[in-house]
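idk why but the lab printer keeps eating my pages so im just putting this in chat instead. protein + flavin-adenine dinucleotide:
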Amino acid sequence: MGADVDVAIVGAGAAGIAAARRLAASRLSSMVIEATARAGGRAWTCDVAGLPLDLGCGWLHSADRNPWTRIAEAAGFTVDRRAPAWGKQYHDLGFSRAKQAAARRARAVWADRLATAPPASDRAADALEPDGEWNAYLQAMSGFISGAGLEHVSAADYRAYDTASTGCNWRAPAGYGRVITASLPRHVDLRLSTPVNSIELTRQGVELATPVAGIRARAAILTVSTAVLAQGVIKLPPDLNAWPQAAARLPLGRNEKLFLEIVGENPFVPETRVIGDPRDRRTGAYYIRPFGWPVIECFMGGDSARMVEEKGPAAGFAHAIDQLAALFGSSVRRNLHPLVASSWSRMTHVGGAYSYALPGHAAARNDLALPFDQRLFFAGEATHTYDFSTAHGAYESGLRAANEAIAALARR
Ligand SMILES: Cc1cc2nc3c(=O)[nH]c(=O)nc-3n(C[C@H](O)[C@H](O)[C@H](O)COP(=O)(O)OP(=O)(O)OC[C@H]3O[C@@H](n4cnc5c(N)ncnc54)[C@H](O)[C@@H]3O)c2cc1C
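predcted complex ->
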């Protein structure tokens, strides 16, 4: 019995879409198998109140070398090249200029320690000044960047990302999620609402079991998140135990976005930003009126995102409104209406935001990216050794895995 397809791609997120694009340009047949009812995965532009709101990736990080910038512009999407308002506190509300400078200095000292005298433990928290005045601020930043506290994060892994980042961050007003999903070639065989339950090795290659039908392929590319892989949601042959083990060393951090709608007369100025409380590691960061839209994008990371996960979005909205009222005055409460919130940590087929490496385990990214027996290939943001946690890292990983599969099948 022959195979149904040359390469089966499991997951239609940024990595799966990149792999499908590469395979569509080859002589091999391919199929994308996606558990949920939509493509995009953690790239998700949601149309709410007439606005294209990104519940997942929103910023083209390292945008000047990010392949999605080129793909977006080639497809006719506008890329907004203005610098973000991050790092600035609107009107220095609740965070004086002097304190902002002190917090920035503390961050620079910590980053310098990571680079010049990295802790033997590889725990990023061990480079903090003991009882440092700005440690809660640095922890909040870690929540936004890694989705976890510094005590859980590998210093080497953090440094790898930081060193490679160009610091250039742009946006696509139509939505990053939309740019990514629109790039899937129209003729690609996409099977939505088709979760892969198990993968078996066969004489021809692999067989994927789904509730709809079994799919035989000469090779498969797995792009599912590390949470999905580590939890054993997809049953793999025992010879592949090392991959879920590597995934477990690269857990997904917690990050959620909540959008507040702004109504009535209000003090909110477009393209500004505030941090709620720089001395609280549970603080949110608030991007005010992106593109002039009547919304505030509330970004929760680490402890604050865990609170949203455990107590639900209503508790997250209440936390955000309390923090904004403390800065802008309690009258803004009547201007702010909960609009839409993500729930990445509770989503069955994702299970968190983006990967970080546990202390001592930065090399797990290489282990996770290894192919198995020239027929199973691994992609996804977590497999990138320095652009992990991003949509462009996912893209590069999908491209790599597709090239590996093409080379392997040519040899067979
Ligand atoms: C709140 C938030 C903000 C972010 N902000 C940014 C940002 O500004 N810039 C940036 O670059 N990145 C950002 N990211 C990260 C970025 O979104 C991800 O790194 C990237 O989208 C991951 O793509 P992926 O293809 O590796 O994984 P995924 O998008 O998770 O794709 C994997 C796919 O596999 C599917 N799947 C799972 N299990 C199965 C199964 N059993 N069978 C079939 N299919 C399955 C899933 O449904 C999913 O569609 C953000 C993420 C979050 C959550």
